């Protein structure tokens, strides 16, 4: 009697053994645990785009606006994950903290890369002025932080100076973010846009490396000026200042000031958008310190994010946030201490 019972017991154990998952199978877990694991999705890798305007050597305000945008934590380290931070130039001048702010961005650039994010820096006119030896807006505190005027001059050399090389290696004249938004310090004119972002960045790099800050059209003129320099007559006109005026992508304010009226301004903005295949233009350079708010015109096709962040311009805090939606559109917000607004 015991032998058949023993055989049946062994067969039952064998069946239970065969039903167990192999080492390559998923373990059998309670339903609640399986549900919890199923919904633990990795964070999206197309993070936000966050942009801030002119900072002018003010470390306190720089950290305040970056914390407002939630890309820097209380310890001044990167907290933006997969986000892209774009700073539209003029980190330098008018304040005491030049070294500290540039070093902050250098640190954040490395930390963001390690986290899967990115930090993008765009040349402002004040970067170019300092690289070219135009130091009219440098403060005495700034000189002292470098150890004097001569040491500061040495630091800004793009070939041998620690800060000049840092800037040259990491800054461009313009940046197109994921095909939808173009960033520049000054206003992007249609003539420049038609040359393309890569060409503009190449022109600026070549001019800076050669030390050609006085005559390079990329820094002072219009796209028409660049094309015209191949003709001797127009070159002579340029030397007289009739063509190459301050309408390059680090200087122009024509969109921000609507010099030709709103209708013509928006036509020009549309021409830039068409040339670069983008949805919007973002500039710094023209401080909105009277309102402390981001300027948005042309149905959101053009925005100025220089709100006067530094204490020199009033200490206003604002950042731009761009969210990429699943349908290929973008939602654009202004971030203020009092909350977030659709623009």
Estimate the mean pLDDT confidence: 85
CATH topology of the largest domain: Purple Acid Phosphatase, chain A, domain 2
Q: What gross morphology would you assign?
A: globular
Report the span from N to C terminus: 86 Å
Main sheet? 7 strands, mixed
Run of helices and strands: HHEHEHEHHHHEEEHHHHHHHEEEEEE
SS class: alpha/beta
Beta-strand segment tally = 12
* Percent in helix: 40-55%
CATH first level of the largest domain = Alpha Beta
Do you know the CATH architecture of the largest domain? Answer: 4-Layer Sandwich
In CATH, the homologous superfamily of the largest domain goes by the name: Metallo-dependent phosphatases
- Count the DSSP helices: 15
Protein name: Calcineurin-like phosphoesterase domain-containing protein
InterPro entries: Calcineurin-like_PHP, Metallo-depent_PP-like
Organism: Linnemannia gamsii
Signal peptide: 1-25
């Amino acid at each position: 009697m015991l032998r058949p019972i023993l055989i049946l017991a062994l067969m039952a154990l064998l069946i239970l053994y065969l039903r167990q998952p192999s080492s390559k199978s998923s373990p059998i877990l309670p339903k609640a645990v399986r549900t919890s694991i199923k919904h633990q999705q990795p964070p999206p890798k197309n993070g936000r785009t966050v942009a801030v305007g002119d900072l002018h050597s003010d470390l306190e305000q720089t950290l305040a606006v970056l914390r407002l945008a939630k890309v820097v934590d209380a310890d001044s380290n990167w907290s933006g994950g997969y986000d892209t931070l774009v700073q539209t130039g003029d980190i330098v001048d008018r304040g005491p903290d030049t070294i500290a702010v540039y070093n902050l961005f250098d640190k954040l650039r490395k930390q963001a890369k390690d986290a899967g994010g990115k930090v993008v820096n765009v040349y402002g006119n004040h970067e170019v002025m300092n690289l070219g030896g135009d130091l009219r807006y440098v403060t005495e505190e700034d000189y002292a932080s470098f150890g004097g005027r001569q040491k500061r001059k040495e630091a800004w050399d793009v070939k041998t100076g620690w800060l000049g090389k840092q800037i040259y290696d990491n800054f461009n004249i313009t940046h197109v973010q994921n095909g939808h938004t173009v960033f520049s310090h000054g206003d992007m004119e249609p003539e420049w846009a038609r040359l393309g972002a890569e060409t503009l960045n190449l022109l600026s790099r070549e001019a800076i490396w050669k030390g050609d800050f006085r005559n390079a059209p990329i820094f002072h003129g219009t796209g028409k000026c660049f094309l015209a320099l191949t003709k001797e007559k127009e070159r002579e006109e340029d030397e007289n200042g009739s063509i190459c005026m301050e309408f390059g992508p680090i200087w122009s304010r024509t969109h921000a000031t609507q010099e030709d009226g709103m209708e013509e301004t928006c036509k020009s903005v549309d021409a830039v958008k068409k040339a670069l295949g983008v949805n919007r233009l973002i500039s710094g350079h023209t401080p909105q310190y009277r309102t402390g708010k981001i300027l948005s015109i042309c149905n959101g096709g053009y925005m100025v994010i220089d709100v006067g962040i530094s204490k020199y311009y009033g200490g206003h805090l604002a950042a731009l946030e761009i969210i990429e939606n699943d349908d290929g559109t973008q939602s654009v917000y202004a971030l203020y201490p009092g909350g977030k607004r659709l623009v």
